[in-house]
Amino acid sequence: MSTASTVLGVDVGSNSARAVAVDRDGRVVATGGGEYAGAEAWAEGRAEPAAWLAAVVDAVRETGVRPAAICVGGQSPTTVPMDGSPAVTVLHPAGATLGFERQHYAQREFLGIDGVLQIYDWIMNRLGATIRQSRWPGDVTLNGYGRRAATGQVIGHTDGAFGLPADIPLVAGAQDAFFAFWAGGVDTPGRAMDPGGRTGGLAVAVECPQERGADAMRSAAIGVDIVGGPVSSHGLIMEWLAGLTGRPIPELLDRAALIPPGADGVRVLPYLEGERAPRWNRELRAEITGLGSGHGPGHIARAALEGTAYGLRHIAESLRVPGLDVLVCAGSPARSELWCQIKADVLDVPVEVPEETDLAAYGAALSAGAGAGWWPVPGDAKSGSWPRPAGRVVKPTPRQVYRDGYRRFVESGDAAERRLRQLEASK
After folding, report:
1. Which of 5, 187, 235, 300 has its CA 20 to 30 A from that of 309?
2. Boundaries of domain holding 271
3. Has residue 1 been placed in a domain?
């Protein structure tokens, strides 16, 4: 067991890599980041693994710590050729409407090669780990992606490459969503999370039934499952609106805060990339309705924020889980007080906002800590066995305008699906 005072987790996100150094009490003591050089020229759904690797190294070095262990997690499903040629990311259409396992296989088929790894396993191999396939408890083993290693298991040591110290234990990772759920304490029934980022979604912890449903995921805790689903474009729609209007997202958020709840009748369906849960229809597209000459960018921004909250409520109601006590918000959307308040009001639950909003990186640090012997590995302890970052709570203010807005949101989505069916039938 190392005597180092920190462990280090890294999240390979859609736009950048983020590192978080955590001490034995779960306190964040250092952070670091790295950008993907040349990413603006990448084709949609493709990426250069070398840029990911360089960003991870930059993020680790920026923390300035020599940790007891390092763990890398990230976007998934994403498939990297063993030789480091261009990867296929979660944003690629190959297998996009399928489950995680089949999407991986569709990505591998698109690449047309056998030697592949998950993104974080490829990075860890380049840092010195053996070729392994990191898998969360309950995950199926992917054929052709290397020999299985459990999240929290040591799979090698740094070899001194890329300017990093040698002999630091490297620990098997997991996909970013699982790490975010772990860090946010979504291992106690009634706790839920929107992991944020460019996509987002809703995950709710429930008591594990005697027969686990096909869509249920295992939480880090014994006897607790996670149900829910991802969405396609919640953070992305604000990025798109910023590009469309030429106004940065902080300015759009400021303008949205000046608009009353309900956005003066403007409504947004945030389906820029189709929608996953609960509609699972890639052909859907975003809609903006209710616009008049008196509306401006602030109205559209406010309606977009409300539309993403309606999307979370749509998932929650489709799950029919027995109670949702608190929603943990993570990722860049959690940095907006307005956005968190809208989610609290629309779902009528308190919203918990951690001080460290990159919970995927924090969860990777928990895995590193498990590899260092500080905490149990996921799936091997009861709820509350791991630290989580401190945070604040946003209390809900239920509003009739949001109840009406949610009903119209669902009706609009239903109408959009009917139009798609009619169009298909007419061909």
Report:
1. 187
2. 188-357+391-426
3. no
